[in-house]
Structures are given as structure tokens and as C-alpha cells.
Design goal:
The protein has about 900 residues and is of the alpha/beta class. The chain contains 28 helices and 38 strands.
């Protein structure tokens, strides 16, 4: 786990072999802390005490220890008690007590221990903790009171008595998330701002990686306040490299070392890590390759590396890392292999691949954009993009976050962190490895996250407010606009410039991107700076304009129009540079005005190679193609709209209270279904234990959540079909429900508008002959639904992301064109309203071509009910409703399928813990 100061520690059970560690630990605790623990002077532990504190049954008595470098630094224990406070094997209360070494108090150790011991107790049927604390032990009282649990407090006989329920509350979860955020942010800060750095593996050969790292660190990181050391175990005494003495071991360095950069053969890494731990190093950048990217043996080496580092309190960048960069003027750091370094700026940049890292840095340098910090973490075995998001949320030097992601370690956590960060700072992402099976080798990814569908990733990004782009070029195009210009208040765009053709191209690109452009204002190719100034001021002052795109080409007659070795002007004609200073001045003046008005101004140009550099001091982004400018603006418009919706949602969005909800009854149905012999047998089958409920159970479960499925009756023969129709009432439909025929009206498996017995008998005979028999086709009779729009609603639990709610129009739009929208569960009223309107075929619901609009209110309520069901019942693995016929008044659910599975582990809801991949 991570502690408050960014250091790492391990929590584990205390066992019988820990007697020596316990005694050593207790000897390091002050007399005052011992007094606070036992309410009396207690200088040493007796043999009886040692036995008691190391022997647990791990049900009624549990002890945990926090371990750093194989030594205890804190312990916690609970003992189950009955209503009278006596030891019990059946009670639901337990006494809990902590002891933390004085040297480690204030690091958040006790708070983390409380989270873990509470989780252990809950798993064993304990519902409430009790604790007695001396009033002067204010630190421990604060640990309990700040935890966020529902608690009761009393004072008697000079002792504070605390009782608190262990059921997580919104407050306790918020406390855990806030602690997690601070710890992870601090751990990254320690990596980026070390007081001293050592390169382990620096060689006399100038072509080696270690020597290159040493040179870069000395060039960009070293000063008298932050020394850089070189380490090489084969160096003769007195060796120097680049003016730095070389030590044979990091243990020989006289002062502290905060960060070690390891560039030694893979076989030598464990020894180097052990020495770093013994010397008190806080973080490692492991450049060495030969780990999980090489196969199973390499993955085992990678896991051992992370375990070894964490046990010594260190975090790891890598292995197979490209490195770290910080442009903090007070403490710059270049612990990377970067061939070029951008200047200081507001971009926080993260990637996994070293090759992509080079491209990202080179692109920023070429554009003249600066970074606040950069990380390329290779196999991402420990420190991940989530850690850097936590840091950048707090870093005042970072304005925009740029990510190149090839995999997710914890998608659910990414969504939670990115959503909070994006409400303050833009997050722009290129997601590589989009297709299943293209996960880069070596990435530490749980099996649940390896097969994330791209539609799921899109839903994840969309709800988190993350801007997804396709290329590195678009990453910086969008990031530059978001960093330099105000967010657009809307999607109305004015296009102003000196080229009618370029203006029309920009106008068309705006329409394609879903923006609302006005007719372009053409100033003609003879436009002067004053013409630009007047036109831009007019556009910016217009209350019906939210953003302005200036378009520019060189004035006819300038040297920029030289082509094919010739010129459009004569040799004696005066030249006007392609960076016309008057136009540049007009744009800069308009840029100041635009910023004051809160409207973005950007430039799309052709052949004006010098103008962008003139505009850079004024923060006006310039793009050498109108499509690039428009795409960047469209992303900014969508992000600004998300920010506004999020601000509004905090005030108005809600998960409505719904009637006809019987959670207890539904849970009973699910538990009964999971306990059947067939369900138990299914758990042993390959691929898991998802069980499809019988139709009757499906209808009953959905009914517990107010979801009414239109009843169907089997029709294996004509006579049964006629009786079924009489029961349901005419008109009816006759349809096949066999798996290979379900939802396939194109195969002739449905007959509608059957208004009487004769028509029903004729239809039954036809389908019996067409489909190979009524029993084979599983024919059923169903009351005819009112006419409307056929839609499909689904909810699927993704073990990596959580439950996802989906909506589309049934048939070709959803199946052929993939026109389906997604939201993460639980969905609010605003989420489902957006879901219905997001699909491209949505106009069919709202009266397209004069048709009567359907009842979207009923549709949205159904989506909320499905969301509530899968959120309440994690055993429900999927719900499919198809078709759902939405009529002008009400709707009808004609088909439903529910699949269930044993309760999954929801990894993002428990106590804080670091990945063990």
C-alpha cells in the first residue's frame, strides 16, 4: 500500500513466526505510545503477551502488521466480543486496538490499517468495532473520527469509548479516495523532485545507456543542491565519469539518495535493488529490459522486482522504461533517454512505449510547446498513468494532461480519477492497441482488462470527460488549443479570412464535425491587416458567435507563391513576406480581445510558414490545414459542453426514486437461481459461470423492478396456439423463439396482426412448414404490441469497468451500423436522456418526417430501472431487452434475457491496495 508521504509498505497477517519481529517492534515504541495502548506503564511484552499477539484464529481474533524492509512498523488487532464485552465466537462486535512506532506516526499508517482490518472483519461477519482511547491520545481519536464511518462516542471513567459501524458510507468511501489521492500524488512528486540521483550502471563506454543517462542528468539536473552520483560495481578505485566520482556500490555514497536510475543487465538488477533499499532510496527508474515483454519467465522476474522494491518502501518506474522528465525551474530533472527536450510549459505527458515517448517529445519541441513533466514507464509494473493523473490534479504547473495509452491496468479507477481531474483540467488521450489481441507485450494488465471493447473504452472516456483523439498530431492540435485559448461557450463558429476557397473548406469541415458555422466572411486576397482587424472585431463582438477561425493565405504577389521554379510576380515587384506583420499584429490584437470575451480564436493557414511563430507569444494556435483547426475546436466544444453539464449535474442530476422496486425479492430469486444444481455445475465450465435464466424466472426478476415483459404462451401445435390467443386476447403475433431464429424476422419467423382464429391457424401451418416444425422453432403466441419504434436496451457487467448500460434502435442501426450508445452504471436521469438522444438514428424517436413522436419519457424510465437492477444486484451479469417497442404512449417489451453469475469481486471498492500484477 501507499502511505501519506508517498512511501510504500506491506500489510500482512501476524503469525506464529513473527515473535522476534514483534518484540523488536515493541522495543522501538516510546513509553508514551505504550501507555496510550495499554493505559498503564508497559515497558516490555511478556512471553504470554507475545504468544497472545502472534496466535490468531483469523476469524474471531485477527492481527495485522505493516511491514517495511521485513520489520514491523505498526500493528492492529481485533477480538470478537458479545453484547456484554466478553470474548465470543458468534457476536457481531469486536474490540480493535492499534500501535504505531513513533518514527512512523503521521504517515497515515493507522488510517490504512483501519481500512484493511475493517474489511477483514466484515468478511467474517463483524458489523461494528469498539475502541477505548485515552483522551490525550488525540492522534488515535482523530484516526477513528476522520474515517467517515457512522459512529457513536461516549466518555466514562476517564476513557473515550467509540463505536462505529463497518458498513461503508459515502463519507468513508470519500475519505479513502482522498487518502489514496494524496498518497499517490505524493509518491509521484517524490519521483519527480529528488534531492539526489544515482545512475547504477554508468559505464566508461560513452555509447552505453547508463553513460547517456548520466550525461543527461548532469546536463539538466545536477547542481550543488542536488548531486548526481555514478555507480558501477566494476569501476577501479578513483574512477571518474564526466567529472563525477564512480562508486562501486550505492552503499558507498556518503549522503542520501532519493532516486536511483538502474541500467544494468537484468541478472544484476535484484542486487542493485537490494542495495538501494538498504540505502534508503525512495524511487527507482528501471531502464533495463528483459522482463514481462520477454514471456512468462520475464513476468515472474518483473513481479519479483516490484515485490522487492515495495518491501523496501520504494516505487518503480518501469521496468523497460524510457524515463522521467521534470521542468520545475527550482529542481529540473532529466532521467530519460530523450534526444530532444521541450522547454518548460503546461503539458503533463504520459506514455508507455519509449518510441512513442520520443515522438511525443519531438513533436512538442518542434511546435514550441513546453511540458511540466513527462513519464514513459515501459511495462508499467508499478507506477501507472493513474498515479500521474493524481499528481497532475494537484500540480499547479500542469494545465493540460496528454496521454498515450496502450492498455489499462485498472479502468474503473482511471474513470474515477480522470472524471475528477477533467472537471478542472483537460485530459486528452490517444488510445493505441484498440483491437482485441493487440495488447503490447509486457504490460501489467489483469485478465479482466485485456479484452475491453473499443465501445466500452469510448463510454468510459465520454463519461469521464476525457477527450479521445486518433493521432499524436491531433493530440497536440487539441492540447494546444485547450491550453492557450478559453473554452468555447457554444458551437457557433465564425470563419473570417482572405481566401474564399479556404473559408468554404473550413465551413464544410465545421459542418462535418457537428459545429454550426456561419457563412464565411471573405476579405479577398488583397486584405490588409486593418481589414482583418475590423472583421475579427466584428465577429468577436457578435453575441451569436462562440468561436472564431481566421483563415489566411499569402497575399497574391508575395514570395510564398513561387512555384515550379517560377514566380507570379515580376522580378522588380516589391515582396511581402509570408508572415505579413500587419496580419500578425491584427490577429494578436484580436487574440487579446477574444481572451477577454471568453471566445477562442485560432488560425487555419496555407503556406504561411512564418506566421505561426509570430502568433505563438500571443497564444494563438495556428494549423496548416483547416480540418486540423476544426477538429481541435470541435474537441474543445465537446469538452466545454461536458464541463457545463457536469456543473449542472452537480445541482440537478439525480438517480430518481422509482416505485415498484422489490430489491429483497429480486435478490432472493437470484440466490435461488444460483443455488440450483445446473448453476453449480455451470461454475466448473470453461469461461466462467454465467447462467441464462429460464423465461419465467426472467419475467419474474424483471417484474421485481417494475419492468413488465409482454407475456408469451407456447404454441407447439395449432390447438394450443388458439387457446393461447384466447387467453391473451386478439390481435396477436406468432413468432419463433429458438436461439437461431430469435430476432430474425428476415427469415420469416414472425407473423403479425393476427386478428382471428383462422388467420392464426394459417400462420401456424406456414411457420411449421417453413421453420422445420413448431417444436424446433419454439413458436409462441404474444399479444400484439402497439405500433412504434423498435429499440434495444442492454446492460452488461464488464469485470474491469463495471456495469454498462446500452441503447440503440433494433435491427440494422444497432446490428449492422453499430449505432449504439453506452453509459456507465448507475445512470442518472440526465445520463439516460443523453443516451436516448446520442444514437444517430434518434430522430426516428422524435417525429422524423412528420411521424408522431414516441414516448421517450417511458423509455428513459425503463433505462433507469435497468440501471438500478444491475447496480443493486451485482450477480446480474447481463440484461437484454429486445425488441422494446416504444409507442406514442407507453412501450412494450417483447423479448427479454437475463444472465446471472456468482458475485464478482469489485476491486475498486475495498481498502487501498497496490496492484500485484
Amino acid at each position: 500500500m501507499l502511505l501519506r508521504d508517498g512511501g510504500t509498505a506491506r500489510i500482512r497477517p501476524i503469525g506464529t513466526a513473527d515473535a522476534g519481529r514483534l518484540v523488536e517492534f515493541y522495543e522501538q515504541v516510546s513509553d508514551q505510545s505504550k501507555y496510550f495502548r495499554f493505559f498503564a506503564p508497559y515497558p516490555r511484552l511478556s512471553d504470554k503477551d507475545v504468544r497472545r499477539f502472534t496466535h490468531h484464529d483469523f476469524v474471531n481474533r485477527v492481527g495485522l502488521a505493516v511491514v517495511v524492509r521485513d520489520r514491523f512498523i505498526a500493528t492492529v488487532r481485533y477480538d470478537r466480543i458479545d453484547a456484554d464485552g466478553r470474548p465470543s465466537e458468534t457476536g457481531t462486535d469486536a474490540e480493535v486496538a492499534f500501535l504505531v512506532q513513533d518514527a512512523h506516526q503521521g504517515r497515515g499508517v493507522a488510517s490504512a490499517l483501519l481500512e484493511h482490518i475493517a474489511a477483514v472483519a466484515q468478511e467474517r461477519g463483524i458489523r461494528r468495532f469498539q475502541a477505548e482511547v485515552l483522551p490525550e491520545n488525540r492522534k488515535m481519536v482523530k484516526v477513528f473520527t476522520d474515517a467517515g464511518y457512522t459512529q457513536h462516542r461516549s466518555f466514562a471513567d476517564g476513557v473515550v469509548h467509540l463505536e462505529f459501524d463497518l458498513e461503508p458510507t459515502a463519507a468513508s468511501l470519500a475519505v479513502m479516495r482522498a487518502r489514496e489521492h494524496r498518497a499517490e500524488a505524493r509518491s509521484v512528486q517524490r519521483l519527480l523532485t529528488p534531492r539526489s540521483v544515482a545512475v547504477i550502471g554508468a559505464s566508461r563506454n560513452p555509447q552505453t545507456v547508463g553513460r547517456a543517462l548520466l550525461r543527461d542528468l548532469l546536463a539538466g539536473s545536477a547542481d550543488e543542491d542536488r548531486p548526481v552520483y555514478a555507480v558501477n560495481r566494476n569501476a577501479p578505485p578513483g574512477t571518474e565519469l564526466d567529472g563525477v566520482p564512480v562508486h562501486r556500490s550505492i552503499l558507498d555514497i556518503p549522503g542520501p539518495v532519493d532516486l536511483a536510475v538502474i541500467a544494468v543487465p537484468v541478472s544484476a538488477v535484484p542486487a542493485a535493488v537490494a542495495e538501494c533499499g538498504a540505502h534508503g532510496v525512495q524511487g527507482l527508474v528501471v531502464v533495463t529490459a528483459g522482463y514481462a515483454e520477454t514471456g512468462p519467465e520475464g513476468r515472474d522476474r518483473q513481479r519479483a522486482l516490484v515485490r522487492q522494491a515495495r518491501a523496501a518502501g520504494m516505487r518503480v518506474i518501469g521496468p523497460n522504461a524510457f524515463g522521467l522528465i521534470s521542468t520545475d525551474p527550482d529542481r529540473p530533472l532529466n532521467a530519460s533517454l530523450a534526444p530532444v527536450l521541450p522547454g518548460r510549459g503546461g503539458f503533463g505527458v504520459f506514455c508507455q512505449s519509449g518510441a512513442i515517448g520520443v515522438a511525443l517529445l519531438e513533436s512538442a519541441h518542434r511546435r514550441g510547446l513546453g511540458i511540466s513533466s513527462f513519464a514513459s514507464v515501459g511495462n508499467r509494473a508499478d507506477v501507472s498513468g493513474n498515479d500521474f493523473l493524481q499528481y497532475w490534479a494537484e500540480d499547479p504547473s500542469t494545465d493540460v494532461v496528454l496521454l498515450y495509452l496502450e492498455s489499462f491496468g485498472n479502468p474503473r479507477k482511471f474513470t474515477r480519477i480522470a472524471r475528477r481531474l477533467a472537471q478542472a483540467k483537460p485530459v486528452v488521450v490517444v488510445k493505441g492497441a484498440r483491437h482485441t489481441g493487440s495488447l503490447p507485450p509486457g504490460h501489467a494488465v489483469p485478465s479482466t482488462a485485456t479484452g475491453l471493447r473499443d465501445a466500452t473504452v469510448d463510454a468510459l472516456f465520454q463519461q469521464a470527460g476525457v477527450t479521445r483523439v486518433e493521432t499524436i498530431t491531433e493530440l497536440y492540435d487539441t492540447g494546444e488549443l485547450l491550453a492557450l485559448q478559453p473554452l468555447p461557450p457554444g458551437d457557433r463558429v465564425a470563419v473570417v479570412g482572405n481566401s474564399d476557397s479556404l473559408g468554404l473548406l473550413t465551413h464544410d469541415a465545421c459542418l462535418s464535425a457537428g459545429l454550426r458555422p456561419r457563412t464565411p466572411v471573405d476579405l479577398t486576397t488583397a486584405a490588409t491587416g486593418e481589414n482583418f482587424r475590423i472583421a475579427l472585431d466584428t465577429a468577436l463582438d457578435d453575441p451569436a458567435v462562440d468561436a472564431v477561425i481566421a483563415v489566411a493565405i499569402p497575399p497574391i504577389g508575395t514570395s510564398a507563391h513561387a512555384f515550379m521554379g517560377g514566380r507570379l510576380t515580376g522580378p522588380d515587384d516589391p515582396e511581402v513576406g509570408s508572415d505579413d506583420p500587419e496580419i500578425a499584429a491584427a490577429l494578436l490584437e484580436a487574440g487579446t480581445r477574444a481572451r477577454a470575451l471568453g471566445k477562442p480564436l485560432l488560425l487555419a493557414h496555407l503556406a504561411l510558414t512564418d506566421l505561426p511563430s509570430r502568433l505563438r507569444p500571443g497564444g494563438i494556435p495556428a494549423y496548416p490545414a483547416p480540418e486540423r483547426a476544426v477538429h481541435a475546436l470541435a474537441h474543445a466544444v465537446h469538452y466545454a459542453d461536458w464541463r457545463r453539464r457536469m456543473a449542472e449535474a452537480e445541482e440537478t442530476a439525480r438517480v430518481p426514486e422509482l416505485d415498484r422496486i422489490d430489491e429483497a425479492g429480486a435478490r432472493g430469486l437470484v440466490e435461488a437461481a444460483l443455488s440450483t444444481r445446473a448453476a453449480i455445475a455451470a461454475r466448473t465450465q470453461p469461461g466462467g459461470a454465467r447462467i441464462t435464466l429460464p423465461d419465467a424466472d426472467t419475467v419474474a426478476l424483471l417484474a421485481r423492478y417494475g419492468i413488465d415483459v409482454s407475456p408469451t404462451l407456447p404454441a407447439p401445435d395449432e390447438e394450443t396456439a388458439v387457446r393461447a390467443a384466447a387467453t391473451l386476447g386478439y390481435p396477436v403475433a406468432l413468432k419463433a423463439t429458438a436461439p437461431h431464429l430469435r430476432h430474425r424476422p428476415d427469415l420469416g419467423s414472425v407473423r403479425l396482426d393476427l386478428t382471428g382464429e383462422a388467420g392464426l391457424r394459417r400462420a401456424h401451418r406456414e411457420l411449421d412448414a417453413l421453420l422445420g416444425g413448431a417444436a424446433e422453432a419454439a413458436l409462441v403466441v404474444q399479444r400484439l404490441a402497439p405500433r412504434g419504434v423498435d429499440t434495444v436496451i442492454g446492460a452488461t457487467v464488464d469485470s474491469a469497468v463495471g456495469a454498462i448500460l446500452s441503447f440503440g434502435l433494433a435491427g440494422a442501426p444497432a446490428e449492422l451500423l453499430g449505432d449504439v450508445a453506452h453509459r456507465l452504471v448507475p445512470a442518472t436521469d440526465q445520463d439516460v436522456a443523453g443516451l436516448v438522444r446520442e444514437v444517430r438514428a434518434a430522430p426516428l424517436l422524435f417525429g422524423w418526417r412528420g411521424a408522431e413522436a414516441v414516448d421517450t419519457g417511458a423509455l428513459e424510465e425503463l433505462l433507469l430501472r435497468v440501471s438500478r437492477l444491475v447496480d443493486d444486484l451485482p450477480e446480474v451479469a447481463s440484461v437484454d431487452l429486445e425488441p422494446v417497442v416504444v409507442a406514442p404512449h407507453g412501450l412494450a417489451i417483447l423479448g427479454a434475457r437475463v444472465r446471472i453469475a456468482p458475485l464478482p469481486v469489485r476491486s475498486d471498492l475495498g481498502p487501498r491496495a497496490m496492484s500485484t500484477l
